[in-house]
Design brief:
Distance between the termini of chain A: 54 Å
Number of helices of chain A: 9
Number of strands of chain A: 15
Strand order of the largest sheet of chain A: 3-2-1-4-5-7-12
Largest sheet of chain A: 7 strands, parallel
Largest interface: A-B, 27 and 27 residues
Radius of gyration of chain A: 20 Å
Structural class of chain A: alpha/beta
Oligomer: homodimer
Chain lengths: 317, 317
């Protein structure tokens, strides 16, 4: 019998982190989770959280990471915690605090004999200035040239964390997240905005809609990170489905699922977002051995159901 | 008359920083310099230091940068301070402390209304794994892929510092230093080792000697940084002479200058250092408008003189 693999998950109540707990448990990990304040589990998370041992800590407080690691003694660490407030996180100086906290956490983990660290990166680490054809990001060859402080701080955590881990004999992997959606997403983001427009038959002004993105449900991303933790793969790994969807197509799928038509006006807004931002996912599929557990349509259907149930609850209020 | 440009130089007693003071003064800056402990100026630095206002601070101490900036009120900041102990700096965790201190310094400078920040980067930020032909590093296209913690922390300071400065409206430039030499360099490094071998007629085992590098005297690098500070150029700028010299050629030049032959055995050591590590310097020459103030031979001659004077002093002891 091999020694128990004990994993500590930071940001474990977050939009993605909550979805990594059950897959990690199913992969044989003893799961420890950390959050600033442990909330009462909403009913839909109760099964996912079964058997998880919770720790309360503010990773930005000096010494907190060290105490946490001494308490949980993890062999593995899956680090999602970061500042992520919608609309504000792109250029907030808080990214600097999380860069420092991430490196301190890794250092404390290494000093305590930790074996494997997996961090949450972002497609915003890459150079987005290429042509549409070039914007299929490859972990090995696409330059890191972030346009916002968020991507810069994440790229810095990757670069410095990689070498810090290497010197300490800790295996280091870094999952770069692309476009995500799912129940609980802020209403102003593109998938909820489209769902609400179709559900309610409302008007929504959009950019051209021709932009191609790779959308994954947050639950699938949590699952992919769990597999990355259980694997021996090191370095950066793009997290995506391998399927490109234009925003116009996404809107059409949602309209079909909902059986209703919003007044979605593509082309109404001038937009300067890149035409294509998609990952090459050879490392994830061939090396980690992961494939999405559900189709895009299935993930969108669940998200639509969630918004419908919220609408019902709102009406009952 | 324009408002006075007041520059604060960190690491101002260091191997390069000491050489930036006089050129900055000559370019019209009011020069403020910071060091952990202000030493008595050695005689050869007295002229360079004329008119410089000194501040004593340990930039790793919490709050020290803020107090320093409040005292000096600089419009410009030239940041050399970093951990640089020969043989140890490549993979020391102290690089993390200097990454954090650099970002904190920039943040404090921006909050105090600073206008322009120039930092000292390194060729070790780049990917060194290319072929000899590819290893001519271009600021815009060569990937940042450091092999050591030092390069990773410097690249992180560049990436995160660039965006932090951009958001705060501070002009940000980053000079990437290549190979340097000069009086006072640790004896174990390649130029002093070759000089001593030739001066003393001693045996020195070396690698193949075919490796091409771009060598600049530390005094020229200080001068280049002063010009970069006075310019409007933003982003990364390689600091080099544009001349490639193989180690065998370097040894031959030194042997000629010294008029003596050491027993330098190229090929005696197996080495895995890249065959070529040289910068493209179009930005430095065409945009900043800098050219080296002296030839490689002249810089080497001064360094040889310094080692000769040291040998005389040693004999007098």
């Amino acid at each position: 019998m091999t020694a128990a693999r004990r994993i500590l998950v930071t940001g474990a109540t977050g939009f993605i982190g909550r979805h990594a707990l059950a897959p990690l448990r199913d992969l044989g990990f003893e799961v420890h989770a950390v959050a600033r304040a442990i909330p009462g589990a909403p009913p839909e998370d109760a099964a996912a959280r079964a058997g998880v041992q919770w720790h309360e800590a503010d990773l930005l407080a000096p010494g907190a990471a060290r105490a946490l690691i001494q308490a949980a003694r993890p062999t593995h660490l899956l680090h999602f915690a970061w500042y992520a407030e919608h609309g504000k996180f792109w250029d907030s100086p808080r990214n600097l605090d999380w860069l420092a906290a991430t490196l301190a956490l890794l250092r404390d983990f290494a000093e305590a004999g930790g074996e494997r660290f997996v961090g949450a990166g972002t497609c915003a680490e890459y150079d987005w200035s290429g042509t549409a054809q070039e914007n299929r990001f490859d972990e090995g060859s696409t330059p890191l040239r972030p346009s916002h402080l968020y991507g810069a701080a994440k790229a810095s955590a990757f670069l410095t964390g990689s070498l810090l881990a290497k010197n300490a004999g800790v295996a280091f992997a870094w999952g770069r997240i692309f476009h995500l959606f799912g129940p609980g997403e802020p209403a102003a983001r593109i998938v909820p905005a489209l769902i609400r427009a179709h559900l309610l038959g409302e008007k929504l002004d959009c950019g051209s809609g021709t932009q191609a993105r790779d959308f994954l449900p947050a639950s699938a991303i949590g699952d992919a990170f769990a597999r990355l933790c259980a694997s021996d793969v090191r370095g950066a790994v793009n997290i995506g489905s391998g399927r490109e969807t234009r925003l116009t197509e996404l809107s059409a799928i949602l309209s079909g699922l909902i059986g209703n038509q919003g007044d979605v006006r593509f082309g109404a807004l001038a937009g300067a977002t890149p035409e294509r931002l998609v990952p090459l996912i050879r490392r994830l599929t061939a090396e980690v051995g992961w494939t999405p557990p559900e189709t895009l349509e299935e993930g969108l259907r669940k998200t639509v159901e969630w918004w419908k149930s919220r609408a019902r609850e709102t009406r009952r209020d």
